[in-house]
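As a warm-up, study this chain.
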Amino acid sequence: MSNTKHTTDADNIRAALKTAGYSARAVTVRQSGQTVRVTVRTGDVSVSAVREIADRFALCRTDERTGEILGGGNCFVHVDYCDTVTATVAAGVKEVLDRAQVGTVVEIAGERVTVGEHEAYRTRSGLLMFGAGRLASTLAGRLIDAAVTAAAKVAA
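Now compare it with the structure written out below.
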């Protein structure tokens, strides 16, 4: 009988994050099936830096002919800030979006956002999002990440 331990993708990502100096309190890793969710739980950790580490473990095998994703053996990795980290910044972003007139363009977190009807927003990259709350949360994450990255460059 073998005493080998089977490690999951989540275990491997946790080990890599620990080696890079991120504690389990700052960054959590959860796996459900082929999907690994990495959550940054503090505003002083860059989601971009964490994503760079976690994405090394992402794997998506596709059929060479059809391009379809093959079942089994894949690892889909998602990295985001937790809701409590983005909530405060998102509230300010949502306030800006709510005050803007339909058809106007607002620049937030380096993204030009066109305000549409029925809480529809089109970003510079062509992404269409519904609901000021979700867009505010996405842009808040970018703002936090930009601030953390800038602070790290100043400290270096």
